[in-house]
Amino acid sequence: MLFCFGACLLAGCSAKPSDPKSEAPPAAVVQPDADPNLVHVDHPDQFTLTAATEYAATSTIQVTGTVNPDISRTIPVISIASGRVVEVHARIGDYVKKGQLLMDVQSTDVSGAFGSYLKAVNDERLAKVQLDRAKILNDKGAIPNSQVEVAQNADDDAKAALSASEEQLRVLGVDKNHPAATVKVYAPSSGFIIAQNVTNAAAAGVTYAGSANAFTIADLSHVWIICDVYENDLPTVRLGQKADIRLTAYPDRVLTGVVSDIGAVLDPQIRTAKIRIQVENPNTLMRVGMFATATIHGKTAQTHVQVPATAVLHLHDRDWVYTPTGDGKFRRVLVRGGGSLPGNMQEIVSGLNAGQQVVTNALALQNTADQ
Description:
- It is built from five helices and 21 strands.
- The strands form four sheets. The protein has a six-stranded antiparallel barrel with strand order 3-12-15-14-13-16. It has a four-stranded antiparallel β-sheet with strand order 4-11-9-6, with no helix packed on it.
- The model is unreliable at about 25-35 (pLDDT under 50).
- The chain has about 375 residues and is of the alpha+beta class.
């Protein structure tokens, strides 16, 4: 028994400790998946290739805006006489000609001005009689020259007062020979009435509580397109640049305008600046408030890349093209497409260089790959 115990003790002392690494599981090996943008086809020669080409064009940005009247061609209609509107002869939206009657205003200013005129007439008649009498007496030596000069001065003052009263009646629009209780207000220019602030029995004039501007007349032969331009696009906008205007109401019509002003203040909420495009308005095609889209063209030509429109695949709200990689394989490359070009071409803003080969019909290749 002692011999067996000693042998076991010697055997336990001579045994090696266990290695933890040998007991660990084998390391995992990751097998990479195939590139989803790499496509392999059996007959690659059935897909024709074309090279991306360059073309020179000016830079463009597209903005939206609305049609507004040209402020320099907008005229307010004001009634000089303050009073009550008796009758309105025109309405908002009407086209009026210069000198056309717009409204009648009943005003106490007329009676006051006509009373001043009659008094001035009497004063001038009396002053003239006194001057004539003074000249007769002076000729007979009854009065000195100084009294004639005084009478002459009084006559001159009376004539000046009479002229002022006549001018006051003329400004009010009252005929001094045929006075009336109402003042007629006429259109100062031809154009469309774009604002109306009076109705029958309303107050009019500059001293009453009513609106001073009874009407607003605008010449709409030229209009403004007021657009919002984002802050990062402002460096590309210059005064005098040409702009193509397209209206939502007339999508097939393209009008040409010129950038005439760039706002100096940005909207703090949406970070945009207002720009003004001046456009001719033939046959009043554009109406105030219409929605418009403006394409502003730069003055310096830039080089861009273009490919056939069929070479661009629109997938998941993105634009792709296929480029050959050899051995019957094609790689799908993400690009940023631009606008459509003449000749069934499309601009490529980024992602492709001029001279690179692309598949002419990207949709056909995509359908073959899906099968």
